[in-house]
Write a structure and sequence with these properties.
By secondary structure, the chain is mainly α. Helix content is 57%, strand content 7%.
């Protein structure tokens, strides 16, 4: 499996869980201040003292650990990883809190810093909220199905032009090919 894919498979769930934990904490605090009856906390996955689920992560991998916890405890659960508790919201019914939360309730800035090398400086989470909102609106417009269909022809032409210089057979050093330009 490619290193970039592995990194995304590890960081995406971590990112979602950290933000979900922040949401759960803030909502719990809000419920307590209004003196409403709050829901019980999500069930906690068992793990080794102090290490939490770290041994299971190393043995099974993050995806399988999350699948096992989901099967055992349902759509909302907590795992302990070293000194942190991370709450998972799995599925559309419970994850809507994550996606529909206000920026005042969920601060994605801290947990999204790892995206800056991916998108570059001045893009997405490397800018203030107003600029980021404008950029996301632009991204949203560009990613609508009608626009994506229009891009398909351009992508095909660019790929064909790129591979036209390769010839019918041979060997290519992909690292040199992609990273030296």
């Amino acid at each position: 499996m490619e290193l970039a894919t592995v990194i995304w498979l590890v960081f995406a769930p971590v990112f979602i869980t950290i933000v979900s934990t922040k949401i759960a904490r803030q909502r719990t605090t809000a419920c307590q201040t209004t003196r409403r009856r709050s829901l019980p906390p999500p069930p906690v996955a068992t793990g080794a003292p102090l290490l939490g689920i770290l041994p299971a992560l190393l043995a099974k991998g993050p995806l399988q650990v999350i699948r096992d916890a989901h099967a055992e405890m349902g759509s909302v659960f907590t795992v302990r990883l070293l000194h942190r508790k991370v709450i998972f919201l799995v599925g559309p019914d419970v994850s809507s809190h994550f996606y529909q939360g206000l920026d005042s309730e969920i601060s994605q800035d801290e947990v999204s810093q790892f995206t800056i090398p991916t998108f570059g400086p001045g893009v997405a989470f490397d800018v203030d909220f107003a600029t980021r909102r404008e950029q996301f609106r632009f991204f949203g417009d560009a990613m609508k199905p009608a626009k994506l269909r229009a891009y398909a022809g351009l992508m095909v032409r660019e790929v064909e032009e790129y591979f036209a210089g390769w010839g019918q057979s041979g060997t290519i050093d992909l690292k040199h090919e992609f990273f030296s330009k």
